Amino acid sequence: MTTDFEKCLLGKYNNFRQAQSAPTLFSQIEILWERIEGGLHSRQWYRHEKDYPYREGYHKLSYTSDTELIVENYNTDWTRRENCDMIFKFDGRAWNGKILGDMCYRRGGRVVSEIILINKQLHSRDKGLDEFGNRVWGSDTLYIFTKGE
Q1: What confidence category does residue 149 fall into, taking pLDDT thresholds of 50, 70 and 90?
Q2: Domain residues of the chain, as ranges?
């Protein structure tokens, strides 16, 4: 059974409009979310490097209510990404997600992630912060992806 959250999430996205409107600020990126046996699979890649995703993982959904769920995040070998699950809440208009807690660390920084699923768009901002709160990777700006373009 596909849930409302999955209907919003599953599919292929790109940010071509955003990247073309500001090519010095935004790389052209594609994202694929698909259902697989045992959960979900996601991949992100630069448009010119489809065979070399820079982010890939597996996921399981754990619903706490009709309007709230946890996305459990796993590496490509199905080992858990410790402390990196995300919580999503539906506000009547959009699904709003963020890292659950503040103990997710990747690539030398504490991960701060935000995802908004609204209509056929996925808005995303990911960054890593050092111990002083300085950004060491990622973006302060939301990337805007559109499904199926």
Answers
A1: low
A2: 4-147
Q: What is the per-residue burial (b if ≥16 Cβ within 10 Å, else e) of 23-55?
A: eeebeebbbbbeeeeeebbbbbbeeeeeeebee
Whole-angstrom CA distances from 13 to 32, 34, 65, 142 are 6, 11, 27, 14
Q: Global pTM?
A: 0.92
Q: What percent of the chain is modeled with pLDDT above 90?
A: 95
State how far the alpha carbon of 122 is from the alpha carbons of 15, 97, 106, in Å.
9, 11, 22
Compute φ and ψ for 20, nearest 5 degrees: -70, -30
Tell me the fold of 4-147: Lipocalin (2.40.128)
